[in-house]
Amino acid sequence: MSLRPQIYGFDLSKLRCVFGSGDADIVAKIQGEFDRLAGRDPSAYDERFRQAFRAALRQAVEIGVPFPELEAEREPHVLLAMLLAGCNQEFIEIDSGGWSHMSFNDASESGELFLPDEADMVEDPDFFRDLGFAEFGNSDTPVVSDEPRETGFSYIQFGRPLFGQRFETAWSYYGYLSNEEVRYLRSRLFALEDKEEIGSEAAVELTADLTRWCDELLGTKKDLWCVWS
Question: pLDDT digits over 202-212, tens only?
Answer without folding.
Answer: 999 999 999 99
